[in-house]
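Here's my example:
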Amino acid sequence: MIADKVKGEMMDLQHGQAFTGRCIIKADTGYACTAGSKLCIVTAGLRQREGESRLSLVQRNTDIYKKIIPQLVKYSPDTLIMVVSNPVDVLTYVTWKISGLPRERVFGSGTNLDSARFRFLLSEKLSIAPSSCHGWIIGEHGDSSVPVWSGVNVAGVPLTEVSKVMSSKLSTESWEMDLHRQVVDSAYEIIKMKGYTCWGIGLSVAKITKHIMRNSRNVCALSTNVKVSELS
């Protein structure tokens, strides 16, 4: 049954290749098909239930990762590994420890999606295109994330200056706190309505992958293992 589902997904994707750039799509229930991969993206894991925090998934998803990661490294010893499953920051560390790979070759999807949600919600607030709103969410993905308000700008204009000419849209004293709360609550709202999130994180991971494979030197907000000495 699982093999049939995997094959079905493969065929469905293959049939859409006329609308995309050329790529080879394979599917299998074994790890041998991943041999020689430059980048392995791990999305396996249990989903959050409605009202459940990401951190509550730690042990259950760690057990799953203990089975997956050694096999990926076995068949692709030179690979990079991107972790997407929640809690992504914790599982990125777990993956690094299990894999035995250098820390620079293991990273997570981090707050890249949080930052995208932040820019979208800010753009809605200001009635400006998301591509013209620039800002970052840093820290841990999810509930304890941190918005870097001092770095927010609209087409290069600092938010402090934008606020002066768009005061009617930014009228309440708590609007910044409210907007960040919307960012944090976004996933919970989506899970409540449809059971899971997929498109936002999928697009985020696809963009990160594109940057990596093309070495485009773009900046993304990822989960990484940073030495204390690098912050001093």
User: Anything to note?
Assistant: The chain has a mean pLDDT of 92. The longest strand covers residues 39-42. Helices lie at 2-14, 58-75, 88-99, 112-126, 159-165, 175-194, 199-214.
